[in-house]
Amino acid sequence: MSSGQRLLIVGGIALALWGMGYGLWYAVFAEHQALDGIGASLATGFSAAAERNTTGADAALLQYRAAKYNYDRQVDVHGHWIALAMLLIVVGIAYDRVEFSRSVKFAAALGLLLGSILFPLGVLLETASQGPIPKGIAVLGSALVIASLAGITYGFARVPSATRD
Fold first, then answer.
1. Is the torsion defined by CA of 101, 6, 152, 147 positive or negative?
2. Pick the CATH number of 3-154 from 3.30.70, 1.20.1270, 1.10.3470, 1.20.120
3. Is 0.70 surpassed by the pTM of this model?
4. CA atoms of 159 and 163, how far apart (whole Å)
5. Domain ranges of the chain
6. Rounded average pLDDT over 1-26
7. How confident is the model at residue 165 (pLDDT cuts 50, 70, 90)?
């Protein structure tokens, strides 16, 4: 097993465990409170609207929007970490068929692993701050995943070096 293959498989397993652990933590300690907040802000907003209290309705709907934004990001992060982990494992299983040197294969595997960690992490950080740093981390992570996958795909498509002219 090459170092790149080992990195993808072990990294994928570790990332899957991390994603599942994060999802379990969120479900047990945070999700129900988030859903209660979402429901309460909607009920408050609808009650205020029925009373023709536009200021109260607007404030409650802004609370709903913020709570729903955070909830969606939390669920997305959990799902993306696990999905990217499965991708790492599947690619890792067939990684010996990538026709590149060991160093290029390791670099592509490292890029894919780092991107798979950084992309959801950036999305998670957006729940604390919607500024440029969390968005930059998410963009960097997704760019690493895309570039690494493009390179790995090219490596899979190359003719094996033993049969090249």
1. negative
2. 1.20.120
3. yes
4. 7
5. 3-154
6. 96
7. very low
